[in-house]
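#struct-help
A.M.: can someone run this one for me? Single chain, 394 residues.
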Amino acid sequence: MDPDSPVKQKPGDPPLKVLHLIATNFLGGPEKQILEHLKRLNSHRFRGVLSSFQEWGEPNELLEKAGHQGLTHYSIPMYGPFDVRAQFHLNRIIRREGIDLLVAHHYKSCIMGWWAGRKFRIPVLAYSRGYTAESRKMAFYYWLERQFLKRVSGIVAVSVGQTERLKEYGIHPANFWVVHNAISVKNRGNENSFEKRGNFLSTLHIPPHGKIIVTAGRLSPEKGHRFLVEAIPGVLRERKDPFFVFCGDGPMSEKIVRLAKELGVFDQCRFLGFCHDLAGIFSAMDFLVLPSLSEGLPNVVLEAFAASKPVVASNVGGVPEVVEEGVSGYLVPPARPEPLARAILRMLSDPGKIESMGAAGYERVRREFTFESQTEKLESIYSQVINWHKAGRD
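D.P.: on it. Structure tokens below:
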């Protein structure tokens, strides 16, 4: 058997079972990526199974959505970070389903998944999206994960930038792949777009001539919202029509609001908290700003491009793998309010450029960031990892 060829399955052979393991009660960007991927697996070759740790018995949005989509899914009860019973629950799922490959998302899944893989002698593929170590506890967990990343059968990173970051941590696996996040793209054009924009402006008490600049993401230190707020005075010195809409909540929420008040820009800001309908908001905005200090490959950029809207973003992580400078947006150095303000003003100065850049971003994601392409790449990786494991090469 050639270890680099697809897994050979005879007619009548059951599909290989791939378990995606994640620790979350939430339905965010990574979770949506997993669901969309599992729906598209070639059912003749693979059968996807999803499992999530259910912390303290709280409702689990991801598993509820998986149930609605008819996906095979399991909850793993967990009460505290050292609840060893969760490992036994995971082991039972692997034994019951006859799992051939385990795909681990995030540190908890990577650690427990590696132990399960060792027990059942199945390969473990780790998915690496990025790190947001906002506390000493999380920094320790991520350090611990990196020790296990050195031992897994392979790693899928969402961007080349993320692979470089892992290498800086001393992780050099023999099997490393880059598979970008994906998005479902609808046809361009919406006859109700002007009406939606008008309703959005009215709801947020923004005048009809106002420019809507949106930033979306968790309000946490690594997302860099502080530097966007610090850039706003420089923007408002040049023009008075921009309004900045913050979609998201998190540990920095109060500090960001307080900073906006201290800098005298609060009246030009709208803080919406967690937003369920980002697609609707993006369809109404002029463009997106992503002031992050670090990123894997941001879903919000793909979502902005799917809405035909350009992006001003920090040149970090996998962002330049999506945003083409001067073509679909502008890239700026992170943590520097002045260049960020200049890029925002540059975008605002040319409405035609906003339109053409949005169209370029749309065409890019329509061609290169589809779930079909993503799933094809992942299926090939699954085959390689399973073959290598059988051949004793992992």
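A.M.: thanks! The domain at 193-368 is CATH 3.40.50.2000 (Rossmann fold).
D.P.: also worth noting: The chain is about 45% helix and 20% strand.
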